[in-house]
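Quick one - inputs below.
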Amino acid sequence: MNLLDRYLLAVKKYLPWKRQDDILAELKANLESQLEDKKADLGRPLTAEEMQDWLKHLGPPMVMAARYQPQQYLIGPKIFPMYWWVMRLALLWCLVIYSVVNAVEIVASSPSGAAVFDAVLHLPGVLIITAAWVTAVFAAIEYGAAHSPANFPAKVVDHVDWSPGSLPTSEEGGCKGKRPRSYAHAVAEVVFGFLWIIWLLLIPNHPYLLMGPGAAYLRVSPYELAPVWALFFWCIVALNVVQLGWRLIELVRGAWQKSRALQHITVKTMGFIAVLVLFKAPNRAWVLLKYPITDAARYGAGLNSMNHAIYGAMLWVVAISAMIWLWQIVQLAVDHYRKCVVAEK
Amino acid sequence: MTLADNIFENLRLELRRGCLTLAVLAQLRQEHYGYTLRKALAQHGLEIDESTLYPLLRRLETQGLLVSEWREEEKRNKRFYHLSSDGELMFRQLLQEWHDLNKSIDNILQGS
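Output:
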């Protein structure tokens, strides 16, 4: 794959998928003609360095893609990379600061499930406000640069640092960074999947396999895990058995390189169900006393705090799992829709 | 850039926008693909950015003023554009408007 093809592949990522092939073919024809003219002027093919300089002169793939589309944007392609970088940074810091502040506040006041739930509930609003502010600032920069270029130094607007040498080398590398699985990889997945399940099944009778020396504490501790953990455990085992079976069938049928979207989503759904099973523990009790009649007075308070803390953590786990699960469902639906549209063309 | 320069630049772009449409329609009385169209316009003294040309071509095509077709030339697939019958009619009307405007401005300049 030559450098021009790699450039075109990178441009493709920024084109609307419905017209991607059409625009890309046109761009390719235009660039190849331009390249031919350059060769004719020089009387020889371009050297690798000249090729890089030419591509650099054409502009970053995102900017090139924007040239072939109607200009309907709030944040233009020139400042979009910087906008995206700042946006991710701002959201990450917002999440960290919000979590730390709320955690300290909850611990300092009265730790309760309701307080944690309230904090989780307010998080999306805080993130949306942060994103809105970042967007507003960059939209103002874009507007200013378009209407009064003199007041916006080129450094701000043309902050697109790129090198043709860094272009992806294949479609997979350019889009998702994944190569098709090899046969050896598929076999290894089945073998290790099988060993993993054996290890899982040994845990109930040999807890040290999971907890190491900490398993001894379970025996002497006044606490024990609630029965819901056993249900959760079997959900996890079932999930792994389904995944192993699926992979085995793929291997037998020689289909290990095919898309595994449905398999992924099934496994993720089962994983999410397992988390929900755990979350719905009766009386929000994940840890119990071994001898409640005799130990309640001594260890009851500690037990309650422990279960409250687990409830808080579970809320986060359920919220994050739900978001990931929904996101993957949406991605699967979008991919499926795209494939249908492409097949219809 | 001073304020006057900014104002001039905005007015120049405004003036140029309509003229570019007319120039593209005029040039596409003959068939061209993107690259040769840009070259032909540049040879006539009208440099046009890709970011202006391609959205303009798409818009004119959507409006039914241009027709495009993919064809192989020199072992390469290219998208050729040319005026549609509606486009030719529109071009003649716009050209007439352009001449009228020119004439009016000349008259104003001569009268002052």
